[in-house]
Design brief:
Keywords: ATP-binding, Cell membrane, Membrane, Nucleotide-binding, Transmembrane, Transmembrane helix, Transport. Its main location: membrane. This is ABC transporter ATP-binding protein. The protein is an alpha/beta fold. It has two domains: 317 residues, ABC transporter type 1, transmembrane domain (ABC transporter transmembrane region fold); 174 residues, P-loop containing nucleotide triphosphate hydrolases (Rossmann fold). Helices cover 63% and strands 9% of the residues. A hairpin with a 2-residue loop joins strand 4 and strand 5. Helix 5 packs parallel to helix 9 and helix 14 packs across helix 16. Bound molecules: adenosine-5'-triphosphate. Adenosine-5'-triphosphate binds next to helix 11.
């Protein structure tokens, strides 16, 4: 961000070729402001006509009518110009909003998958949507209004000096004082305050979502809102900063409004002082009348400009938040791409720790998963199995050592190509709200319907397709059609089969399956893993007995390795786990 523009300039850099249109919109808004001042002048001249009648002249009805019509004409032109200004500024604002959203989404597409664990999709969506909307509001409405208010103010100041500088100048000094007091009393830290305030608001919204997600737990365990201490604290923090922000504005606002609204306290005595030196009563009343009509309009414009300052700060803060996404570190692409010829996977002295943790999740991990063979990762909860598996498709970059495919460091393989080489079956796969056909086709977008059906068949999905109203064309998530955990898992295996990648990573893929489903998932695996390099994270030891190699993990490293029979003979960690596993199974049967 160092050599990047900031604030409003930064927002405008997303306008692209529409930037000129915004200048046009601001010019139109400025011109429309001049037209909208016009009726004030007309009212002034009409009032002069009426005062002349009091001073003994004949009523000039035609002149009054003319001023009225003139005022109406000016107002109409002003409104039309203002409409055109807003139309133009909206076009620019929508483009900026769209470009900001696209830039953020494009940037996210190149973020490592691990980034989305720390920044869940809901949070990112909120940051992108809400902040880009905030910039849209500022560009579409507030920026043209600001120009209009500035033009009105400048014109007002000129008129005030031209009509009678002896009354005009003291009024201008008074308004200047109000403006100065307001900006100095509201403090130089208001931008910082705005940031903290918006942070607190964001945290509160996020905690509210978390609270609602966990509402089932709250109900089942009869807990209260207070039991969700994080949500409660977030509300309290927001309250604290909202109040602090309001209080920080208090002095400046009060001083400004008090001075501006008491302008008559200055206008009346100065008017009378000037009146004594004015040759005729008519001249005095005429110029005094101008200030009576015009000074409230100037006060309104000043007020508008004052509020604009806070809207501007809000828009700048919104841009800063989107920039937090746009400047987050992407995974670098290799300068000289390399491609493996074979697909064995090697971990060479790999160490990796998650952000904000001081303990590595895997530490000096070294092993080789042979091509065409099954390597199983087992171990107690938290021993680092899933972390090791997630390093293969580069969900995270290792801090030390290297993960290699066919002897090539995965950081040297372009990400798109690496993704084509690895199929990852998650513990908790997600289906899109789309037809099953498209959900499976996500594995290979160019696949034909027949190929998708074949993959579904190999993944044991025939019974799922049969029971759905439109078979493979049924939309998941609509009209109450959902799949069970085990069924979803089989669809995700069909997706992986279709992808036909040479390396398959299975992360506890049978974790949520019942015995019937587990049997089907195991059969589905047969269709997926034939002749592939398979790395399988497993809790249920029954699923790894036939693996070519079993790696037993402990504290992020390998405690022992071998085939099932080797490890049983060895009577170490695995033998204990196997023993415990059998006791559990037996306990289930007996009970
Ligand atoms: N996103 C994360 N951020 C920070 N720490 C994490 C994250 N994911 C896992 N860890 C930590 O890393 C260590 C290894 O976790 P990992 O999930 O790899 O273990 P595991 O053997 O797969 O466990 P399980 O069998 O329970 O899934 C644990 O101490 C865990 O708390």
């Amino acid at each position: 961000m160092s050599n990047q523009s900031k604030g409003i300039k930064r927002i405008l850099s997303f306008a692209g070729r529409y930037r000129g249109l915004l200048t046009f919109a601001r010019c139109l808004s400025g011109i429309s402001a001049l037209f909208i001042i016009g009726p004030f002048i007309c009212v002034y001249f009409a009032a002069r006509e009426l005062i002349a009648v009091f001073l003994g002249d004949q009523l000039n009805g035609q002149a009054l009518l003319n001023w009225g019509l003139f005022a109406l004409g000016l107002e109409l032109v002003g409104v039309v110009l203002y409409f055109l200004a807003l139309l133009s500024s909206h076009i620019v604002a929508f483009h900026i909003q769209k470009n900001l959203q696209m830039a953020a989404l494009r940037h996210l597409a190149h973020m490592p998958i691990g980034y989305f664990n720390a920044n869940p999709s809901g949070k990112l969506r909120k940051i992108i949507d809400e902040n880009s909307f905030q910039t849209e509001t500022f560009i579409a409405h507030q920026l043209p209004d600001l120009t209009g208010a500035q033009v009105t103010l400048i014109a007002g100041v000129c008129f005030m000096i031209i009509f009678d500088w002896r009354i005009g100048v003291p009024l201008i000094i008074l308004y200047g004082m109000a403006f100065y007091l307001q900006s100095s009393l509201m403090g130089k830290n208001s931008a910082e305050f705005m940031r903290i305030y918006q942070d607190a608001q964001e945290t509160m919204n996020h905690e509210a979502v978390e609270y609602i997600r966990g509402i089932a737990v709250v109900k089942v365990f009869g807990q209260t809102v207070k039991s969700f201490a994080k949500f409660h604290n977030a509300i309290e923090t927001y309250k604290k900063y909202a109040l602090a922000y309001t209080m920080s504005c208090k002095k400046g606002m009060v001083a400004f409004n008090a001075i501006v609204n008491s302008s008559f306290l200055v206008l009346v005595p100065i008017g009378f002082l000037v009146g004594f030196t004015t040759p005729t009563l008519r001249d005095f009343i005429q110029s005094f009348l101008f200030y009576v009509i015009f000074s409230p309009a100037c006060a309104v414009m000043l007020n508008k400009i004052m509020y604009m300052t806070s809207y501007k700060m809000q828009a700048e803060e919104s841009m800063r938040r989107i920039d937090m996404i746009l400047t987050s570190k992407q995974q670098p692409e290799p300068a000289i791409p390399q491609y493996p010829d074979t697909y064995e996977v090697a971990f060479e002295d790999v160490t990796f720790a998650y952000d904000n943790t001081d303990h590595p999740a895997v530490s000096h991990l070294t092993f080789m998963a042979k091509a065409g063979a099954i390597t199983a990762l087992v171990g107690h909860s938290g021993s680092g199995k899933s972390t090791a598996a997630s390093l293969i498709p580069r969900f995270y970059d290792v801090q030390d050592g290297a993960v290699k495919i066919g002897g090539v460091d995965i950081r040297e393989i372009p990400q798109g190509d690496l993704m084509k080489m690895v199929a990852f079956v998650f513990q908790d796969p997600k289906l899109f709200k789309d037809s099953l056909l498209e959900n499976i086709r996500a594995g290979r977008p160019s696949a034909t319907r027949e190929e998708v059906l074949k993959a579904a068949h190999l993944a044991q999905c025939d019974d799922i397709l049969k029971k759905l109203p439109n078979g493979i064309d049924t939309i998941i998530g609509s009209q109450g059609i959902y799949l069970s955990g085990g069924e979803t898992q089989r669809i995700s295996i069909a997706r992986a089969i279709l992808k036909d990648a040479p390396i398959v990573v299975l992360d506890e893929a049978t974790a949520y399956a019942d015995p019937e489903n587990e049997h089907q998932i195991q059969k589905a695996f047969d269709g997926l893993i034939k002749n592939k390099t398979v790395i399988m994270v497993a809790h249920r030891l029954s699923t790894v007995q036939d693996a070519d190699q079993i790696l037993v993990m402990k504290n992020g490293a390998i405690a022992e390795s071998g085939t099932h029979s080797d490890l049983i003979k060895h009577q170490g960690e695995y033998a204990k786990m196997w023993d415990n596993y059998n006791k559990t199974v037996q306990w289930h049967i007996e009970s």
